Structure formats: structure tokens, C-alpha cells
């Protein structure tokens, strides 16, 4: 028994040495990469997803552990079935949120691109060169970046390439850049001045959307409160010393209440969300 502390200490020392050596090697490799090739992306040395496969799972799969806990507490398989059915619904909701955030980032990138191109033009660059330099810094072209940059570099139809890029969600501002570009080429008008006006208009539209989201925050909070009311009812039942899950999952009246309540909950949330979406679209 006396050798166990020494053994544990040796294992800990070995692990610390391994981590230190690995970190030193990673730092040396990063210095070599930065010194030899400029700004080079170095992969992280530690990542939960690298050593724990379950960490790579998306957030919608958290429905299954929650459903499993409820199934164990209620001694019924119904929560587990409901959790499995909720996974695709939650996945669709999360993907819609990710698409909306991507649209917002792309719209912000278009605004940044307008200002960057205008700045490069005032610095004395030609329109094609200004677009090449600004596009790399803004990063808003997305999948159409290769076509737009090729058109700008080799004298192609830049407005047409920008209109193709405007088809992506959130990139409607590229159509305005294409129009400014076409007017500047055809009539000799100042491209920088047109881009400045377009940037101001896009910023005003973005601020209007942000103000609308702020006004609708109270409505979204109300929807979240309505969604949490059934959970509050279950908590009150447990606080009173009853077993609401057993009543809901193991009695005919409880099953009827569960089905009817679930349908009313879904209908109420859908109705409220539809009202909010109509207000946002208007």
C-alpha cells in the first residue's frame, strides 16, 4: 500500500510531462509556420470533439437524454418516443436559426464590402483591383466568390457575376453593387459615391430590422413563457406531494389530458409565432 502514492505521483508527473512536451512542440510548430509562411492557421491542440465522440453531436440530440430522464421518472416509454419525435423538429428549428444568422452575416458582409470598395477607389485603385482587395477582407461573396473575383481580375462581366451572387439569401445588396457598377461603366458616374449611398441605405435597412427585432423581443418572451407554463404546472404538482407524471402516463384521464393539453400547447405556440412572424414581415 505504501507504493500507491508514489505510483500515482509518477503517473501524474508523466502525464504533465507529456502535456508539456506536446505543448512545446505545438508552440515550436506554430512559430515555424508563422515565420515561414506568414499568417498560417494552426489547429488547436485540445478539443473535446477530438477525444469525446459524443461532443460532436448536435444540440437537437439533447432531446433524447431529457426524454430518457422523464421516461425513467415516469416509468413509461412515452416520453422517450416523444423525445425521438422531437429531434427532427428541433433540428429544423436550429437549422432555420443558423440560416437566419448566416443571412445576417452575409448582409453585414455586403455592407462592409461596399465601404471597402469605396475606400480602395478613393485610394486610387481601379474598380476591378478595388473589388479584388476588398472582397478578401469582407468575405461576403460566399459561393460566388470565385466567379466574381475571376470577372474582376480578367475583365469579365462583373455586374452579371454580382447579380448571380445576389441570389443567395441575405445577399440582396449585391444587386445594388451590380447596378452601381453598370451605371459607372456606362455613364462614367462615380462608383465610390454610388457605393457610399448604397452602404448608407443598407445600413438604414439593417438598423430598421434590428429595431423591429427589439420591439418583437417582448412577444418572443411571451411565447417562451407560454411554452414553460406546463413545466411550471408539473413542478407545482411535485411541490404539493403528488406524482403528476404517473397520473399523466398511467391513467386514462391523465393520458387524455396529456394529449389534449399537448395539442392545445402546440396550437397556441403556433398561433402566437404566426402572429409575430406576420408583424415581422409587415
TrEMBL record:
Keywords from the UniProt entry: Cell membrane, Membrane, Transmembrane, Transmembrane helix
InterPro entries: T2SS_GspF_dom (IPR018076)
Membrane topology: Multi-pass membrane protein
Spans through the membrane: 6-23, 30-46, 66-90, 216-241, 253-273
Location within or outside the cell: Cell membrane
Domain Type II secretion system protein GspF intervals: 116-236
UniProt name for this protein: Type II secretion system F family protein
Gene source species: Streptomyces maoxianensis
Amino acid at each position: 500500500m505504501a507504493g500507491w502514492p508514489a505510483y500515482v505521483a509518477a503517473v501524474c508527473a508523466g502525464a504533465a510531462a507529456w502535456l508539456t512536451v506536446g505543448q512545446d512542440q505545438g508552440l515550436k510548430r506554430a512559430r515555424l509556420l508563422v515565420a515561414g509562411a506568414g499568417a498560417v492557421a494552426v489547429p488547436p491542440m485540445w478539443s473535446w470533439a477530438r477525444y469525446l465522440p459524443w461532443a460532436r453531436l448536435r444540440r437537437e440530440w439533447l432531446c433524447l437524454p431529457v426524454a430518457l430522464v422523464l421516461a425513467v421518472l415516469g416509468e413509461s416509454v412515452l416520453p422517450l418516443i416523444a423525445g425521438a419525435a422531437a429531434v427532427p423538429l428541433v433540428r429544423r428549428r436550429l437549422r432555420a436559426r443558423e440560416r437566419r444568422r448566416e443571412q445576417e452575416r452575409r448582409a453585414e458582409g455586403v455592407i462592409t464590402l461596399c465601404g471597402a470598395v469605396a475606400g480602395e477607389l478613393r485610394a486610387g485603385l481601379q474598380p476591378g483591383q478595388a473589388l479584388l482587395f476588398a472582397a478578401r477582407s469582407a468575405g461576403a461573396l460566399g459561393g460566388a466568390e470565385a466567379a466574381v473575383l475571376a470577372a474582376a481580375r480578367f475583365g469579365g462581366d462583373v455586374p452579371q457575376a454580382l447579380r448571380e451572387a445576389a441570389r443567395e439569401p441575405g445577399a440582396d445588396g449585391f444587386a445594388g453593387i451590380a447596378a452601381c457598377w453598370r451605371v459607372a461603366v456606362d455613364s462614367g458616374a462615380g462608383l465610390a459615391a454610388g457605393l457610399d449611398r448604397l452602404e448608407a441605405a443598407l445600413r438604414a435597412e439593417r438598423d430598421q430590422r434590428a429595431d423591429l427585432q427589439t420591439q418583437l423581443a417582448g412577444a418572443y418572451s411571451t411565447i417562451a413563457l407560454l411554452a414553460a407554463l406546463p413545466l411550471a404546472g408539473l413542478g407545482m404538482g411535485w411541490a404539493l406531494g403528488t406524482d403528476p407524471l404517473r397520473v399523466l402516463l398511467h391513467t386514462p384521464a391523465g393520458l387524455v389530458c396529456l394529449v389534449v393539453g399537448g395539442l392545445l400547447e402546440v396550437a397556441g405556440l403556433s398561433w402566437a409565432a404566426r402572429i409575430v412572424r406576420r408583424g415581422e414581415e409587415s
